[in-house]
Amino acid sequence: MTLSVGWLSALAVGVFSALVLQKLCFPYFWREFFFMLKLVRFGVKLELSDLTSSICTVLDKFIEQAQRTPNKPFVIYDGNIHTYRDIDQRSNRLAGVFLERVKLRKGDCVALLMSNEPDFLCVWFGLKKVGCLVAFLNTNIKSKSLLHCFNCCGAKTLIVGSGKASDLMEHVDSLLEDNIQVWAMTSQSENPRVHTLLDKIQGASDQPVPAVLRATTSLRSPTLYIFTSGSTGLPKAAVITHRQCLFATVGLWAFGATADDVVYIALPLYHSAASLIGIGGTIELGATCILKKKFSASQFWNDCRKHNVTVFQYIGELCRYLCNQPKTEMDKVHKVRLGVGNGLRPDVWREFHRRFGDIKMCEVYGSTEGNLCLMNHFGKIGTVGRSSFFNKLLFSFDLVKYDTEKDEPVRDQYGFCQRVKRGETGLLLSKVSTSNPFFGYAGSKQLTEKKLTRNVFRKGDAYFNTGDLMAEDQESFMYFRDRMGDTFRWKGENVATTEVAETLAPVDFIQEVNVYGVEVPGMAEHRAGMSAMTLRPGLTFDGKKLHEFVMRDLPAYARPLFIRLQEALEMTSTFKQQKFKLVQSGFNPSAISDPLYVLDYLQKSYVPLTDSIYQRILAGEHRL
After folding, report:
1. Distance between CA atoms of 6 and 11, rounded to whole angstroms?
2. Residues 421-431, buried b or exposed e (16+ Cβ, 10 A)?
3. Domain that holds residue 98
4. How many domains, the chain?
């Protein structure tokens, strides 16, 4: 009996010691374990469905939800409620029209050019019900890029939304010359060669078309083409498979969202964040979403209160826009508990919490076409996820040394890449394998190959090049530092634009800031720091105050040498700061109408950049 008591006591002490050791040395173990367990179970179930040819696609899940909860609101748009049954039946009507009138067949590729509205979903689901591949076109697309997109994905049919029909008229002739048929979500058309859909679906049957048309035999079959922004070139059509779609839809669920949540979606549906994580996630949960035509910072919180929103999607600078709104007594009066997105800078993150309460912000890191996903389910400010043991079971990725001057990874004497130490910034590469493939871009093997880095650690291996510079801390948390190409080199030092922007953010008269590097004639190997910024309402630019701030808080090589004041910073369609045009325009005061300033060490201030000073810079007579 004494022996048994002693053994039990020793066991209890051992278990207690193990728990204490785990808490001290591995504080995130169990949270990470249970979170990753959810994803692994989902992944195993998904792969088994592939082996048994019993794949349940995103569309299949939507149809199941429409049968299970037909009267539940699926989409609330502009005050109108659209139930799961409503969207299902309207997409059935469209599917019938696509088969009988448009003459679409399984396997055809159809381009979709529509703004955020319920019919975007109806057309998308209707096309998938007849087995078509769907290419989501950016609604800001220009004529040259428009034709290029069709050539990429091979689409021969275009469905255009009612709000975009008139904008398209000037391009119709070019499309028709390329044998592309155009159908508009209107009842009438200005051009007799543009066919109409609304008048045809009114009398169409809402009964489902044969299920065999939408069936797929492989998770790796393409289902969508989603285009990159093309900010530095023509858009690229990323191939999106059923596997990628299904994994994207479980993001909200993995972060703890449920069927009782109301999801606020104000991002453009032609991007994967809104369409797959947002709409797909709503379907996976069987929840309700509030769909906005476009984001409005002034309407956001009123919308949240009106519709009892509990979850919202963000990207890029959206949260900064909210923080820049005038403070009110209602700032913390809402039911929002969870934000899911990416690109939230630490300074904005902290201010967002101060203003609007303890909302858990969950960063999701990953590109539309990439084969890597990181998820910060801890809500730890500034990080995009963890490089944990569990995460490495799903994804094999590394940070390698990167040469900013040569714009390529550093190679050793044997031609292989070198891993960085913890705390150091490196280029993020994700290994391509059969279990973690990279499907590339439609219509261009060259573009697909360009995104791969080969012979990284051994001959013959291949890694997806994310183009992102990141760092890992001692607790394995990952931090985004900059985009490859956004980091520039000045006088022998690397300058990370996001770090400089975060440092400048507390300056009282600065509302928004975008940092980039510009070429200085005669110094081709260097890029001088420049910052475009907007001012807070009622405040003016103070060159002396900014000089004092940068001299105190930034190293010499990172201080912006030029300032450009703008009324508004140009953004991409996903609220990311646009740098390319700013870089291209440089700092010539004769070519730029915005007020420009230059750092003057003698006057201890930022002074107006005149033509005279500009010429002195070119002649090397003004110190930079």
Report:
1. 9
2. eeeebbbbbbb
3. 84-241
4. 3
Distance CA 315, CA 340 (A): 8
The C-alpha atoms of residue 422 and residue 424 are separated, in whole angstroms, by: 5
- Residues 406 and 515 both lie in one domain: no
User: Is residue 20's pLDDT more than 70?
Assistant: no
598 and 555 share one domain: yes
Which of 220, 241, 262 is the C-terminal boundary of a domain?
Answer: 241
The pair of structure tokens assigned to 226 is 């989603």
pTM above threshold 0.90 = no
Q: Comparing C-alpha atoms, which of 150, 152, 151 is closest to residue 160?
A: 150
Within 561-610, where are the H helices?
580-585
**What is the three-class DSSP state of 240?**
strand
- In terms of domains, do 471 and 490 share one? no
Do 234 and 90 belong together in one domain? Answer: yes
Distance, in Å, from the CA atom of 94 to the CA atom of 383, rounded to the nearest integer, reads 43
Do 139 and 94 sit in the same domain of this protein? yes
Angstrom distance (rounded) from CA 44 to CA 394: 11
Residue 28 inside a domain? The answer is no
CATH number at residue 217: 3.40.50.980
Q: Tens digit of pLDDT for each residue in 101-114?
A: 999 999 999 999 99
**Cα dihedral 563, 565, 569, 570 sign:** negative
pLDDT at residue 495, rounded to an integer: 82
φ, ψ of residue 216 to 5 degrees: the values are -130, 150
Distance, CA of 565 to CA of 171 (rounded, Å) = 36
Provide the edge-to-edge strand list for the sheet that holds 222-227: 195-196, 181-184, 157-160, 109-113, 133-136, 222-227, 237-241
How many Å apart are CA 62 and CA 619, to the nearest integer? Answer: 65
Residue pair 315/268 in contact (Cβ under 8 Å)? The answer is: no
